[in-house]
Amino acid sequence: MASPPHTSKTLKLERYNSYLRRLHSTKVLNASSKLIFRVTLLIALVLILFFTLNYPPLSDKNPNHAHLHHHNFLSAALFTSSAGGDAWEKQVRHSSTPKKPNGLSVLVTGAAGFVGSHCSIALKKRGDGVLGLDNFNSYYDPSLKRARQKLLLKNQVFIVEGDLNDASLLTKLFDVVPFTHILHLAAQAGVRYAMQNPQSYVSSNIAGFVNLLEVAKAANPQPAIVWASSSSVYGLNTQVPFSELDRTDQPASLYAATKKAGEEIAHTYNHIYGLSLTGLRFFTVYGPWGRPDMAYFFFTKDILQGKPIDVYQTQDKKQVARDFTYIDDVVKGCLGALDTAEKSTGSGGKKKGPAQLRVYNLGNTSPVPVGNLVSILEGLLRTKARKHVIKMPRNGDVPYTHANVTLANRDFGYKPTTDLATGLRKFVKWYVDYYGIQTRVKKDSDINSEHPEESP
Ligand SMILES: NC(=O)c1ccc[n+]([C@@H]2O[C@H](COP(=O)([O-])OP(=O)(O)OC[C@H]3O[C@@H](n4cnc5c(N)ncnc54)[C@H](O)[C@@H]3O)[C@@H](O)[C@H]2O)c1
Ligand SMILES: *[C@@H]1O[C@H](CO)[C@@H](O)[C@H](O)[C@H]1NC(C)=O
């Protein structure tokens, strides 16, 4: 595409002028208004072309994926402008139609996110239909979300770009596809960011969730819903390991409070409308295609760049520990929860009978002190970290998490199998690959590759 040269405009004008001179004076008025109209049209076209060619790209810190901008713009233009069009509907249907008999048809919210992208591909690979929804917000580098989207497209999973709060878009999706399940993973994540932008938590985790439930309850048939709560709901709970029956009324962050609110809201929609609802309390999920705002991720980045890292200690100088859970284990848990979810019982927005309401921990059951996490990374990266040990600021983090997963094991055979060293090895391999880093990092051959993986 090129903008028309200015000469064409002048030529056109000249032609019009000589044309006008030949006209009777009575016609002059009519013709000149036509001229004004056409010139305006021409200017508008030139302006549109100008803005199209100069469309500002999203920020991108990753030169390896610069080509994605182009893809972004094209897909955004194609898919947003034609949302509701024939081609769009065809793509939505194709993506969400299961390939195996009795396969699920799942709407995955937050599909361009870390957990959402992994789950979407896992579902698609076993023959279920999957449609993604994501707003591609810039809480962390959106180019990573776009790269995951690209990977999903390769796996025939289409992501609709839109917000949880867009009721007409969600209704439209349910008009086009009779989803059997929703895997609701879209949320404003992160504990510390809640102090900077509290409203984003209210908007996505509370208002957005309610909007989704409103659409789901009105849908025919009503889908069964599996959604991500968080281990953070245990807050200041000191009983370990954390079990589903422990108290969760002492959140330490607004993030935790919105997740706890989600659990209560789930109770309400189950009670009033017969929606089948399962909340999964994830414990610090990590792995390839992970989240740049999480410690294992930015420690890797900072260690490689020779920057100091802050390692937290509790107020009484104990090590902070986390029940780090590898992404593949979490994916298995999500699929297990979907497979054992009973149907919702309501129809036409009315409850017809009692429906399933569940909450499960999905953790690794072996907390690791953050100091050990750093040592493992130092080994994998063959670089000594510049550790800066400080007291954990009171900004929402809890000192310790440890999951009791007896319930998930009993109900869908959940059993985590990846220890932190094994999982981090896979993460680091992905990290250096994705960011194209040349370092003293252990060679591919010794880092990993017994199971070369294609999934994100
Ligand atoms: N990763 C973890 O350790 C962890 C732990 C506990 C709970 N969780 C929960 O699991 C879920 C998935 O987490 P993740 O690590 O994949 O996070 P993520 O940020 O990578 O994924 C969330 C995705 O949702 C999208 N999104 C956010 N708000 C949206 C909105 N209003 N409308 C549409 N899309 C929106 C984001 O763009 C993002 O791609 C979240 O609900 C999170 O709170 C994660
Ligand atoms: C784990 O939770 C189950 C109930 O889900 C409980 O019976 C068991 O005692 C708990 N285990 C520990 C070690 O607390």
TrEMBL record:
| Membrane topology of this protein | Multi-pass membrane protein
The catalytic activity of this protein is classed by the Enzyme Commission as 5.1.3.6
Sample GO molecular function, one term? UDP-glucuronate 4-epimerase activity
A Pfam family of this chain: Epimerase
Sequence ranges assigned to domain NAD-dependent epimerase/dehydratase in this UniProt record: 106-343
Tell me where it mainly resides: Golgi
Q: Does the keyword Transcription regulation belong to this entry?
A: no
InterPro entries hit by this protein: Epimerase_deHydtase (IPR001509)
Reactions catalysed, as given in the entry: UDP-alpha-D-glucuronate = UDP-alpha-D-galacturonate
Query: What is the top EC class of this enzyme, as a single word?
Result: isomerase
Subunit details: Homodimer.
Family under the similarity heading? Belongs to the NAD(P)-dependent epimerase/dehydratase family.
Name of the protein: UDP-glucuronate 4-epimerase
The species this protein was found in: Populus tomentosa (Chinese white poplar)
